[in-house]
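W.,

You were right to be curious about this one. When I first looked at the sequence I had no strong expectations either way, so I just let the prediction run and decided to look at it fresh. Below is the sequence, 144 residues in total, followed by the output.
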Amino acid sequence: MGTHYPNAAEIKRDWLLVDLDGLNVGRAASQIASLLRGKHKPTFTPHLDVGDFVVCINADKVNFTGRKLDQKRYHKFTGYVGNMKTRTAREMLALNPEQVIKLAVRRMLPRSPLGRATMRKLKIYAGAEHPHDAQSPTPTKLAL
């Protein structure tokens, strides 16, 4: 009796809806990464993409603990000498709140083709509206 690995036909992907209103960024991101990888399923396999699609709404209403809003910095390097752009977490939340969640989740996934395929299943929206009603995502509460 060998170990059973699910093939592509056996993998069932659900659509989950996560409301980020009032949640802390790091705690929410770690649980979203776990849902994307499929660690909550009995068919979890580390080298396969068996996770679910996750739709995150209200990304503009997440919290940072402590003084991270002013002390945490996001860096972006353009590739040219002297062109490293830096923004605080407060500026990132004001300009592009989806990017805050996306970066936090991406850094908790494997740095490989599997991690990049997993990130494609994450959909993030700043407000409460999303275009995935046809997939009828199941509302999911994250553990605090």
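Here's what jumped out at me. The beta strands are 15-19, 53-57, 73-77, 84-88, 122-124, 138-140. And, maybe more interesting for your project: The longest strand covers residues 15-19.

Coffee later to discuss?

I.
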